[in-house]
Amino acid sequence: MRRRDFIAALSSAAVAWPLAARAQQPAMPVIGYLSSTSSGPYAPFVAAFQEGLKETGFVAGQNVTIEYRWAEGQFDRLPELAAELVRRQVVIIAVGGGGVTALAANDATSTIPIVFAFGTDPVKLGLVASLNRPGGNITGVSYLAVELGPKRLGLLREILPKAAAIGFLMNPGSPNTTFDLPDMEAAARTLGQQLIIANASNDLEIGTAFEALMQQRADALAIQADPFLFSRRTHLAALALRDKIPTIYFERDFAAAGGLLSYGTDFVDANRQAGIYAGRILKGEKPADLPVLQPTRFQLVINIKTAKALGLEIPPKLLALADEVIE
Fold this sequence. Notes:
It is a single chain. The longest helix has 22 residues, at 3-24. The chain has helices at residues 3-24, 39-55, 78-87, 99-108, 149-159, 177-191, 203-215, 227-231, 233-242, 252-256, 267-282, 304-309, 316-321, and strands spanning 30-35, 65-70, 92-96, 114-118, 138-142, 165-170, 194-199, 220-223, 247-249, 261-264, 299-303, 324-326. It has 2 domains: 30-144 and 266-289, Rossmann fold (3-Layer(aba) Sandwich), CATH 3.40.50; 149-264 and 299-326, Response regulator (Rossmann fold, 3-Layer(aba) Sandwich). 45% of the residues lie in helices and 18% in strands. The strands form 2 sheets. Strands 7-6-8-9-10-11-12 form a 7-stranded mixed beta sheet, with helices on both faces. The chain has a 5-stranded parallel beta sheet with strand order 2-1-3-4-5, sandwiched between helices. The protein has 13 helices and 12 strands. By secondary structure, it is α/β, with parallel strands linked by helices.
């Protein structure tokens, strides 16, 4: 071989080798993230999910990719969005925004691992066989937002002991309704209170619901644990203050937005735990072997500024129990 040809051959090999090496490197795994809500309201929970992934060694954009699908509160879009992720051949589907999202993902695949973080009992929804042994391809974190509804009525009773009629604002399209409405009705009967049901699945119906609550003279209000209602937390808090109706919510962000008080689990930490589970599955663990996690700590948040605006005095005992008091 002539010297010139030999040098040219070496140069070609030097260029081709890195290209071939890059081609042989495995592509980054892709996690599909499916939510019934929109990206803005859910941003803190997405960040928490990514933090959980990071704790297991996976950083979005570095060694794992996350593709998001947002239903923007339109539940009927969830089946097709879930199908898109299945066609994309994601390695995991992470779901947020309530049990309705997990049901859509579960209907779309029986093989791709699914990790959820929501407030409904997954056994009641038929997603897992049991909390300790989920079975199948799905597991996650259930933070009991729905089951705490009766407790919230009790907290309202401590602030308003003479309240006779309590409103309950629900999204009739939520699968949670099947389980939490009977619980709330039973709790109201136990307390000797009338439960006034108001339904809202869009912005127009929220306004109509508040008008109906005022007409029926509701003394206070509880908000259903629902993704759509969570996405309207600022609007709901403003309406409750405008109509001077003391309201209890299921998540801290409501109180931070001007709501009177909230009682529930730490949604941010629940989504971080879901991220950890996703990372463990990426490392080879199976969803069937990962028990559904449940919270052991609950947050009571009270907004004193709103209480004063409503002319309410919060009992000292309740203030002492509060995890956070917003001045």
